[in-house]
Queue: 2 jobs
Job 1
Amino acid sequence: MFTLDVALTPRLYSLYAHPDSVVVVIDILRATTAICTAFENGVEKMIPVATLEEAWAYREKGYLLGAERNGEKIEGADFGNSPYDYMGDHLKGKTTVITTTNGTRAIEMSKDSHQVIIGSFVNIDVVVNHLIQSKRNVVLLCAGWKEKFNLEDTMFAGALVDRLAEHEQFADVSDAALIARYLYANAMEDPYHFLKNSSHRKRMQKLNLKEDIRYSLNPERSEIIPVLKNGALVQLSR
Ligand code: 3SL
């Protein structure tokens, strides 16, 4: 029997961190959606880094860099954090570096767990199947916004809990997981509308990123799970 838990903010993650757990990093708007999209479009490897200093050091060595802070592309980077930046053939077979406000920090903080995988609506089904087959405790880590709670990551955590909690192996579903599930129950009919007053949707709307929001909330387009191996994200082989 295994536990199913949700770290509702990165600050809470240390309470759940365990070397035997599988961690799903969630940053729906938009880091984990962009990463899943990049793999679906043929990227070979993505090196996630928490700071801009590390990111520039890689760029100086010749790596392509995706960099975002506060929702905006960093000047001089090759891409930002929009899933649309990662569509097409231009990244096929390439290794890129990515740094974002919250998502890549969450990846960094969970790296000592048994396994870190990347979840988004884009690959939700395959993530659910993997977690069932893993036969391990699961922590869903919501990247949030600058250490604080956000609605969209918790909503997605709830979508995962909704699919996993009925599975008998997850006998121990925490209150944090239940609250995420209840939230998702209110959101599932129309997630876009549900998020209308959320802080990040407002922030992104100001930046004219409506299409990114719609894309990020649209489920099931990829069979690929990005997994952290030796400091880089690669495709999980199954
Ligand atoms: O926080 C992050 O990692 C980003 O996904 C934020 S944004 O969607 O690019 O604004």
Job 2
Amino acid sequence: MPYEDLTCKSKMLFERACRVIPGGVCHNLRYFPPYPFFVSRAEGSRIWDEDGNAYIDYWMGHYAHILGHRHPEVVKAVSRCIGEEFYHPGLVNRYEVELAELVVELVPSAQKVKFCSSGTEAAMYAVRLARAYTNRKIVLKIRGGWHGASTDLSCGISHPFEVSETDGLPSGVEENCIPIPFNDWDAAKSVIEKYAEDIACAIVEPVVGVGGFIPARKDYLENLKKRLHEIGAILIFDEVITGFRIGPGGYQERCGVIPDLTVLGKVLGGGFPVGAVAGRSDIMELSSHSRKKPDRVLMGGGTFSCNPVSMVAGITVLRILKENPGIYRELEEKAQKLRRWIEEAAKGRLFVKTTGAGSLFMVHIMKEEKQIESPDDLFRYTHWELRDTIIRRRLAELGVHMIHAGGSLSTAHGEEDMVRTAEAFEKLFSELKL
Ligand code: PMP
């Protein structure tokens, strides 16, 4: 049945939304044409919309739900906290200490950690720490990398990278935030040499997310870290997506390149709002309240920072992951199987490649037979513009929900979900006219 016939209630809700919310959504990725379906319930690997349609979900709350939607242990722990203790005392409590101890135990670069309410905030603070520590201004970021929409980091995110990312940036912001190519060391190095004396840090998603779930090559990260340290700058990993998802210690643990600072979010909050900066004590301590202006880094205001509901949910999820490390192997095997099935479903019809790491994956309909090693490659060699238009809508009609033609597997996704997903792709590929 056509999407519009399946989703009448969502259509009406979207019309109402457009009257009071610019563009009808508060997060641009949640829109797709002609209008998004409105979710009424979620459980395990599934979501349901207002018209009662079920979808196998791979968006998983922006990849936050590694154990699936509404995991019973999380529901229990959060309900107890809210029902019997508090939900927002706005004062220190045991839960932030417990979660901080888990982060320091699990994440190799984390000697100290500070929580805030979102990954965007955390990335903004990490960059501020780097600038203060080095007394320099320039931040390097990956072309196609996303760290939230803070003023400091709103450049070089989407295609075409040369065009300003947003109106409303004050002067100086774009001069001090310089994009570098991903996985191309020679090209990145030439940018570094040009600005060497003024570079405070590079902030890198070690598996670039929105830019295609493409893992960084180990030698690229090693070279980057080495050269940054030689010039007196530091390396920041943004592991908001990969932290606790690729493994208990994130991508840094897997690749063995340990950054100076790490930005965390998503899985860390067990499905509730969270962000964190973790890293070397000497850098993190610059944010201590015991330091006085101007020699301190202002960090960690925030009415809801360390809110106990997020802390309790995070502790619950991180403990489950820590006690069951086999989860990661299972998730990775599932993702590899699904990727293989989807690529096979395209055989003889279209040329399709998948990228990913661990439980993260993305499906690319290729324009030509090339490797995808960077966001630049993604925009050059794939039909990326179909991801959130035709592909998203057709998959939704077939009962599968993906953003950017990809997503994340959770422990709740079973073989049947995966078979149905591969069948949906087969149907989509058989109909697609390029
Ligand atoms: N960094 C990365 C790599 C992200 O994927 C995101 C969110 N998608 C952010 C930072 C921003 O996090 P938040 O949405 O929690 O502000």
